[in-house]
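Notes on consecutive records. When two proteins share a document, each keeps its own sequence and its own token line. Never mix them. Below: protein one.
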Amino acid sequence: MRIAQIAPLAEAVPPKLYGGTERVIWWLTEALVDLGHDVTLYASADSDTSARLVPCADQALRLAGINDHLASTIAMLRRVMEDADKFDAIHFHIDFVHFPIFMNKPDNVFTTLHGRLDIPAFWPAFEAYPEMKLVSISDNQRLPMPNASFVKTIYHGLPEHLIPFNGQSGEYLAFLGRISPEKRPDRAIEIAKRTGTKLKMAAKVDHADRAYFESEIEPLLDDPLIEFIGEIDDRRKPEFLGNAKALLFPIDWPEPFGLVMIEAMAAGTPVVAWRNGSTPEVIEDGRNGFLVESIDEAVAAVERLGDLPRSGVRGAFEDRFTARRMAQDYVNLFETARGRSAGRRSEPLLLAH
């Protein structure tokens, strides 16, 4: 198939620093190429891909210091529109800004929504364009918009060899993510103290959360069990997750997916997660982790981690959360929507300039 992937211009694909959506787009694009499809990626010029790259900004806009991305995004959509008839599937990852332009081409246009949808200010856009096909990243993500035009839920996946399996359990609990009220790092700290287990916190502190960190979390760090590492990059993540006894995911918000859970699973590290948002869809309780609803339950779960073979945790990842599986799910969706039989190939395209 001839497939267009349209990425946000805030970050490169893959991102140089932070950027979960752009990282998923990269994994998906590379997996589609590996499956033999003719893929074109519309993204910033500093992106790195095996697909055909159409540069739509000189560099990632956030790192260039550009805060308003609308003008560059609209310019990118003009380029996509000029090439639209040459693709079998056009796959957007930019929320809803393209809806007015592509509303008359709904048959092969798909939009994956990567963020939370429980914000009423977003809803009018989806209500006004019911012809646009939407893909959710968890069934729970859909709940605030039950009447929206969702055609499929497709879970994220990552490359099988990105994070190596570590069959040996470590001695510390891991917290990985942002320091923010909805991520509940305070819960992670309390669990570590009550179980007498070391906690390593690899977490970034955004400017918006600085006051919360200084007033609520920093005073809790003065304990020999708690080690605050700060933000880590992708090179350090496999070792950090692989050497952990478990990942704590004590969220207090409707998480749409939660990439860190499957990153931990890839390493064979089980996840202790609050039953919120997507976690019941990702965590198979008693196989790749435990679902809890209180500190007491989390403490009990940590004490039961020895019941979970790390090979079984890795197996749960391989069964459901690889990039190849994600890519094949999208191909199946595209082919079904277009009425194509699986495996049909098309001639390479020549893009408009």
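Protein two starts on the next line and is unrelated to protein one.
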Amino acid sequence: MQTELSRQLGIEHAVFGFTPFPAVAAALTRAGGFGVLGAVRYTSPDELKRDLDWMEAHTDGLPYGLDVVMPAKKVEGVTEADVEAMIPEAHREYARDTLAKHGVPEMPEGEEGGWRITGWMENVARTQLDVAFDYPIKLLANALGSPPPDVVARAHDLGIPVAALAGSARHAQRHKEAGIDIVVAQGYEAGGHTGEIATMVLTPEVVRAVDPLPVLAAGGIGSGEQLAAALALGAQGGWLGSVWLTTREAEMHSRALTRKLLAAGSGDTVRSRALTGKPARQLRTEWTDAWDDPEGPGTLPMPLQGLLVAEANSRIQRWEVEPLLGTPVGQIVGAMNSERAVQEVFDDLTRGFERAVARLRGVAGGG
């Protein structure tokens, strides 16, 4: 499964796997793909350094990348406390009432409430980059679009290509103008932040818009046949995230959540602002329903919503309150119905790709 981009990056297969779990990212790289570690969950530079040290020890010298979440425009002097102060009390009360309605206990005394989603605050993302640029990462990706120009320049000075996610051809064109090297066309089906255009339509539009830049297709890809379709549309690889959530290497915080993912169908997700304040595809739960309810106060913009619901999410996860328990995941969740090792999933991808190519050869040859 070779493309010009995979050869340029020195990987065997044009499979790019985004994941918040170091063990999954390392396994992807060892399998011949390109593991990309998501940094948004790290709240301190030391935590990221610890996991990048681990990646270095478990990737056999093969390439891997890092994904951050930061705005394109540089904003200085805004602290987490400043942002917290902007959250209306009515929204805090609504969160408390929703938890009380479902009988969600407080965190045990002395037990921390878990990580807060602060990685999309620029000052946090920049400390992550200060750490990451000391490691031999081979790709920097930004989930919110083009990073600030000084970040792009810094990566390029180190010989690191920069990728950015796009949900429309117009968005992708702005990336090209900003000096981005690789565009990830993220379709409506994808988990996490998405636009409103499906992958089948979006991918060729983005390919045309940014030619000759390489494009990776994301959203609704969980099989080798779907990867072959992405390459047929002009992509130079697939960007897969959701499919790794039910692998054995994934460090999911809850067995109950893993069970929900394994049981979910492709119609059991929703594009909601409940988690971050921006539309993000995730499991539909009574928590997303509450925040999408027109009778409620509505969600806050990013990053206010993420800070508002951080403690609530920690309590829901800690006590495994199943009606409220969810996670970002794409519509491909309907095909994720068994726990397997990353290598097993990867082998299925490559076999499926080979079957699809053979079938197309037969069609093209009239067989």
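For the record: The first strand starts at residue 15 and ends at 19.
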